[in-house]
Design goal:
- Its cofactor is FMN.
- Its EC number is 1.3.5.3.
- This protein is of the alpha/beta class.
- The protein has helices spanning 14-28, 64-72, 74-79, 103-110, 133-145, 161-173, and strands at 2-9, 31-37, 50-58, 61-62, 81-87, 118-122, 125-127, 155-157.
- The chain folds into two domains: 2-124 and 159-173, Flavodoxin domain (Rossmann fold, 3-Layer(aba) Sandwich); 126-157, no CATH class.
- The protein is globular and about 45 Å long.
- The two termini are 13 Å apart.
Length: 174
């Protein structure tokens, strides 16, 4: 069995949902998978053959704890089979759903010494009811600027599960 860890950061739960899906595919492919929130990481990463790091984007940035974990372990990550997953609403537009075309992901990856073996960029979920007042206003403003939905009852899952499935299968074969 291939020992794999998926470390995620999820604000409203979509990144965790994507990671759970990937975990199921990996288990079907003979992986032993630990799924852990970045807030609860206690494992020695050296014991894993594959390391997957996943984060949603909030206000243009990935989770700071995940960023620190990457910085602290970049040498190890560069010698392991690794994947980075970014979940963000910008990726709802197909032309911004790849590492090189998604501005947040491209900027993030350029700032790192770690070079992941695989990168997945997936659109998230927009559900205004889950956001606090200020977050709702900020996200509505961003959606207005980017020609997205702004009605307060909007609840759209933009995630392409076909793309997640393809990514998970490639990760399993890595």
């Amino acid at each position: 069995m291939i020992k794999t860890i998926i470390i995620f950061s999820s604000v409203e739960g979509q990144t965790k949902k994507i990671c759970l899906y990937i975990k199921d595919i990996l288990i079907q492919s003979n992986h032993l998978v630990d799924l852990v929130s970045v807030d609860d990481v206690t494992s020695n990463l050296e014991t894993y053959e594959k390391i997957v790091l996943a984060s949603s984007i909030r206000y243009g940035k990935h989770n700071e704890k995940l960023d620190k974990l990457i910085q602290d372990n970049s040498d190890l990550l560069n010698i392991k089979k690794t994947a980075f997953i970014s979940v963000n609403l910008v990726a709802r537009k197909s032309e911004k759903s790849r590492a090189g075309t998604n501005p947040y992901v491209a900027k993030f990856l350029k700032s790192l010494t770690w070079k992941p073996t695989m990168v997945g960029v997936f659109a998230g979920r927009l559900n205004y009811k889950l956001y606090g007042f200020m977050d709702r206003l900020m996200i509505m403003l961003i959606m207005l600027i980017t020609k997205g939905p702004t009605k307060s009852n909007t609840n759209i899952e933009y995630t392409s599960w076909t793309d997640v499935n393809i990514f998970a299968i490639k990760l399993a074969k890595l």
